[in-house]
Structures are given as structure tokens and as C-alpha cells.
TrEMBL record:
Domain Protein kinase: 294-567
Chain segments carrying region Disordered: 564-587
A Pfam family annotated for this UniProt entry: PK_Tyr_Ser-Thr
Residue intervals passing through the bilayer: 212-235
Protein name from the UniProt record: Protein kinase domain-containing protein
Organism: Dioscorea zingiberensis
Keyword Nucleus included in the entry's annotation: no
Annotated residues for binding of ATP: K322
Gene Ontology molecular functions: ATP binding; protein kinase activity
A single GO cellular-component term on record: plasma membrane
Keywords: ATP-binding, Leucine-rich repeat, Membrane, Nucleotide-binding, Repeat, Signal, Transmembrane, Transmembrane helix
Length: 587
């Protein structure tokens, strides 16, 4: 008996090791070592054991990003009753569950990047109670699941197609379980298969008629000319608005260049009169979206997740409305829950949310308008033309403010894998006193993992580039890059047009150290402030630690705060400040 027990332990250990390897050194890798089960106890993260056998694997919300290549990877885990890999970025095809006949409680692979068909082995799991495969990229048809035990089921938002098998079980779930699969048809979706197929063929025939093809080419050309003209008008407008500063978007990566004015008009057209804005301070009921849109909204710029507009409340208070796009398909409840989570974050260096709006057409975030724009424009804008110098003490103060905000976020954001996830200079706003306010934080949970990984993380860490792996330490890397940008004035590569002068800041700093840096690495604008050199070198040392290639070697944000706070402002700035105090910008 002991021999067979040992064999089980070995087999299950092999299966778990393969799983660990598939996930490319996940955060728990160090923890998954030794013997996985000791009786009913397991010290392995996310594992539960019963009589030395693994009965449950729950690895949710961990930012895992590997690929499962072997469909029989779990075959040795024959006592498994529950499997949850929910909300990671795992790719590959679905496992074959033929050998996991005890899988009775739940299989949850939702919110990942799985591709290929749904495994027909699921039909053999006669006691399975819950199956969640939503928000992946599964394609093909749904297998004829008909186990009476199945009471919770969701395959929404995949690329499934064809007719939903006409089984009692599959018919018992409402359309919500199937939504977001445009090519799926059958009773539960209210979409009759025959009609949709006919329609599809009609469209195909229509598109293939030769005379129409030429009409489409001409229409395409007209559209292109129109788009170029709109872009020209938009650029002209942004230049006028910028007063010598460049707009962050002017130097932003391509792909986000949808006409923002057109975007605004769409928003007005699709808006119902009575759409409510929920304000966290309780003003909610009195303020409707139509009031918000009455004031001519000024476009501020377009980012990865939507456009920002400046509007004015009835009280005269300027506010910013961020129109979100590319979100995960969320219910009002899910969205509100996340917003309420963010509403409790209050820190002097965090840009607080005032409220939000959610409807099927629009998802908006409302916040205060930050008078002095963003750090990107302050650093890189208007170089050479009528620019108020951005002096050392102001830069140091921004570095301190941002470190404090990030440490606070890391402390408050509980289980979030990457508490900010999108730290970059344009997401550091400046108020009327040039106090830095970190914004656009904690959006990762409401965007699809695939987009979160590619749009967010402006300064991409080595582990992201190699394995698309992110963690809280990615935020630390981003902070290090922000420091390098602040000290050197170099334009980061993510914001520079292709072929431009952008620098991969996190890697550049290591090269600079190898080549024994001198004061020449500092921004020319700081060159005259010799008494600040010591502080600049100290801050570069902090940046260097934050940009350690190995995430484990990077410091925690709390340590970073201590190190940055220890750097004293210099005296030369104060004289300049006095000279400038008659000017509009305080440094
Ligand atoms: N509350 C605010 N006050 C003043 N300007 C703002 C405010 N919020 C956003 N902006 C500005 O509006 C512009 C667009 O912001 P948005 O957040 O949409 O894009 P981004 O920060 O450049 O990119 P991303 O979407 O990746 O964060 C930026 O120039 C930003 O600085």
C-alpha cells in the first residue's frame, strides 16, 4: 500500500511540476517545491489535499502567462475535484479531462487566452457541477454536454460557432451564458441558425459582386482622404491648444489615432437624456450625463482605453470625463464593485475619482481637472521655445510624490497582481502647486488580460518582454524608468514615433553604468545646477535598483520611498524659484 501511495505522490508531483513549468516560473514557483501533500495538508500555494492526494488546484488572479502544450498535463491528478485558473493570461488549448473523472465541483478557466475547441472530454464528467470558460478565445462548436449535475455554466465571450447542441442541460442556461459569440446560434441565444446562415450567405454574395467591389474601393479611397483631412484638422487644433507644450498624444505610439472629436460626437449622439453619474460624495442623483455634456467638452487627449474631455459642472467646477473603451464585458455590478473599491483610495498624491457612469453604451470615469497638465508635457513639452525650466527640486519633489502614491497603492490594493499597471509620465498629473497626482491606476481588473498586457505597462520590463509576465514588481520597474526620464529628460521609446529618438530607459540605465556615467547623462536643463549633482546621482542609484533585470531583486515601493525621501533638495533652485515667483508656474 505504501508503495502505491508513493507512486501516486510521485505521479502527481510530476504533473504539478509540468504545470509549474508551463507557467514559466510563476510567482509561486519557489513555493511549489518539496512534497505537495502531507496527509490532508499542503504547503503548496493554491493546493488542497486529502489523504495525500491533490483534490483541488486554485490559481486565480495570479497573472500567470504560460502556455499549456500537453492536453494530458493533468492526467495523473485523478482525484482532482476542482480546478480554477481564472483570470490569468494562460494560453494553449484546453486540457483533456478524460482521466479526471472525479472533477465534480468546478472547472473554471475563465478570463484567459485559451484557444482551440472546447474539449469533448467534458461530456464524460458525469458529476460536474460548474463549468466556466467565458472570456477566452475558444472556437468551434460546443460539445453536447448533458449532465444533469451541471447547474452553473458560462461560455460567453469566446469565438464559438455553430448550433448549440439541443440537450436539456444546455437549453437550461439563459442567453447570458452564450453571449459574445457572434457565430453561435440555437434556442438559448434566440438566434435561429437557418436564418443567420442565409443572412451570412447573402452578405457573402453581395460582397462578391464585381461591380460592387469597385464601388467599395472608391468609397474606401474617399474615406481615407476624409480621415487624412480630419487628422490634419485635429493636429492643427492640438498645436493651437498646446501653447508651446507638446501633447502627450502627439508623441504617442501609433494605433490610438482615432479622431477624438468624432469620438466626442459619437458620445453625445448615443447618450440618453437621463443617464446618471454616480458621484462618490453623494451628489449622484442631482447630476445627469446630459448636464455634463451640455458644457462644451474640450478634448484633452486619447489614451489606450479611451478619450479624456474637460467639462464644467453647473457649479463651475472643471472636471474631466474619461470615456472608457476596450473594457472586459462587465456587468453593472462588477463595474460598480470595482469603482467602489477605487473610491476608498485617498492619498495626497493619488488623483481621486469623483464618480462614474455605466450604461450599455458608455462607461465613463469622472475626476477633477488637474490644472498643470501632466508630467510628460512638463518634461518634454516646448523644448527650446518659451519654456519654463523644470528644475531639480521640482523634479525631486515629483519623484517623492509618485513614490509615496505607489507605495500607498501597493499597500491598499490587496491581492491585485499589478496595483497600478500603467505608470508613465502622462499618468502623473500636476495640480496648481505642481504636486504630482498619480492617475489611471488599478484598471487591470476591468480590461481583458490580453489588452492589459499590451496596452498597459508603457515601460516594459524584461520579464514582460521575454515571457509576457507581469507582477507588482513591474510597477517598481516602471517607477525606475520614470525616474530615468525625470533625470535625463530622454524621451521613452513607447512614446516616440517609430524610427524616432525614444530610448528603452530601463535598459539604457544599465548601459550607462557600464560605460561609467558622468554628469553628462543629466538633462541639459539641469546642467547648471552643480550643487544638485549629488542628489541626481543618488536618484539614479534608486532608479538602477528599481530597474534590476530580475524582479526579485527590485526593492518594494516602501523601501523606495525611504531612499528617495533621504535625498535633500539643493540650494541653487531656491534662488531661481524666487526669481520665478512672479511667473505663473511655481517650481
Ligand atoms: N484629470 C485630468 N486633468 C487634466 N488632464 C488630464 C486628466 N486626466 C487625463 N488628462 C490628460 O488627458 C490626456 C489623455 O489621457 P488618457 O488617460 O486618456 O491617456 P494617457 O494617459 O495618455 O494614456 P493611457 O490611456 O494609456 O493612460 C492626457 O494628456 C492626460 O494627461
Amino acid at each position: 500500500l505504501e508503495d502505491s501511495q508513493d507512486q501516486y505522490l510521485r505521479d502527481e508531483n510530476n504533473a504539478l511540476t509540468a504545470l509549474k513549468q508551463a507557467f514559466d516560473h510563476p510567482p509561486f514557483a519557489g513555493n511549489w517545491s518539496g512534497v505537495q501533500c502531507s496527509g490532508n495538508i499542503s504547503s503548496w500555494f493554491g493546493l488542497q489535499c486529502l489523504n495525500n492526494r491533490v483534490v483541488s488546484i486554485s490559481l486565480t488572479d495570479l497573472g500567470l502567462s504560460g502556455m499549456i502544450r500537453d492536453p494530458l498535463i493533468l492526467a495523473n491528478l485523478t482525484e482532482l475535484t476542482l480546478l480554477s485558473l481564472k483570470n490569468n493570461s494562460i494560453s494553449g488549448t484546453m486540457m483533456n479531462f478524460s482521466y479526471n473523472q472525479k472533477l465534480i465541483t468546478s472547472i473554471d478557466l475563465s478570463l484567459n487566452l485559451f484557444t482551440g475547441p472546447i474539449s469533448s472530454s467534458l461530456t464524460s464528467l458525469n458529476l460536474l457541477q460548474s463549468l466556466h470558460l467565458n472570456k477566452n478565445r475558444f472556437n468551434g462548436s460546443i460539445p453536447p454536454l448533458n449532465q444533469t449535475s451541471l447547474t452553473s455554466f458560462d461560455v460567453s465571450f469566446n469565438s464559438l460557432s455553430g448550433e448549440i447542441p439541443d440537450t436539456v442541460t444546455l437549453r437550461s442556461f439563459g442567453p447570458k451564458a452564450y453571449v459574445g459569440n457572434p457565430d453561435l446560434c440555437g434556442e438559448p441565444t434566440y438566434k435561429t441558425c437557418v436564418v443567420s446562415r442565409k443572412k451570412h450567405n447573402k452578405i457573402k454574395d453581395f460582397l462578391l459582386k464585381p461591380s460592387l467591389i469597385s464601388i467599395f474601393i472608391i468609397l474606401d479611397f474617399i474615406l481615407l482622404v476624409f480621415q487624412i483631412y480630419s487628422l490634419y484638422l485635429f493636429c492643427k487644433k492640438s498645436n493651437k491648444k498646446g501653447h508651446g507644450k507638446i501633447n502627450a498624444k502627439a508623441a504617442a505610439p501609433s494605433g490610438h489615432n482615432i479622431d477624438i472629436e468624432q469620438d466626442k460626437e459619437e458620445m453625445v449622439i448615443t447618450t440618453e437624456d437621463q443617464m446618471k453619474v454616480t458621484f462618490f460624495n453623494g451628489e449622484g442623483g442631482s447630476f445627469l450625463l446630459k448636464d455634463l455634456l451640455k458644457s462644451p467638452a474640450e478634448a484633452l487627449g486619447k489614451g489606450s482605453f479611451g478619450s479624456c474631455y474637460k467639462a464644467t459642472k453647473e457649479t463651475g467646477q472643471p472636471i474631466v470625463v474619461k470615456r472608457l473603451r476596450n473594457l472586459s464585458p462587465l456587468s453593472l455590478e462588477e463595474f460598480s464593485k470595482h469603482m467602489q473599491k477605487l473610491a476608498v483610495f485617498h492619498h495626497p498624491n493619488l488623483h481621486s475619482l469623483l464618480g462614474y457612469h455605466f450604461s450599455s453604451e458608455e462607461k465613463l470615469l469622472i475626476s477633477n481637472f488637474a490644472t498643470n497638465g501632466n508630467l510628460f508635457d512638463r518634461l518634454h513639452g516646448g523644448r527650446g521655445i518659451n519654456r519654463t525650466p523644470f528644475q531639480w527640486n521640482s523634479r525631486l519633489s515629483v519623484a517623492k510624490d509618485v513614490a509615496k502614491a505607489m507605495a500607498y497603492l501597493h499597500k491598499m490594493s490587496g491581492g491585485m497582481i499589478i496595483p497600478h499597471g500603467n505608470l508613465k509620465a502622462s499618468n502623473v498629473l500636476l495640480d496648481e502647486n505642481d504636486t504630482a497626482l498619480v492617475t489611471d491606476y488599478c484598471l487591470t481588473p476591468i480590461v481583458p488580460p490580453s489588452l492589459a498586457a499590451s496596452f498597459m505597462l508603457a515601460y516594459k520590463s524584461p520579464e514582460y518582454v521575454r515571457r509576457r509576465k507581469v507582477s507588482r514588481k513591474s510597477d517598481v520597474w516602471s517607477y525606475g524608468c520614470l525616474l530615468v526620464e525625470l533625470i535625463t529628460g530622454k524621451l521613452p521609446d513607447y512614446s516616440s514615433p517609430e524610427g524616432g529618438k525614444g530610448v528603452d530607459l530601463g535598459n539604457w540605465i544599465h548601459k550607462a553604468v557600464r560605460e561609467e556615467w558622468t554628469f553628462e547623462v543629466f538633462d541639459l536643463e539641469l546642467a547648471a545646477q552643480r550643487d544638485a549633482y549629488k542628489g541626481m546621482f543618488m536618484l539614479l542609484q534608486v532608479a538602477l535598483r528599481c530597474c534590476e533585470k530580475s524582479p526579485e531583486k527590485r526593492p518594494e515601493m516602501e523601501e523606495v520611498v525611504e531612499e528617495v525621501e533621504a535625498i535633500k533638495p539643493c540650494a541653487s533652485d531656491e534662488d531661481e524659484d524666487e526669481q520665478e515667483s512672479s511667473g505663473s508656474t511655481s517650481n
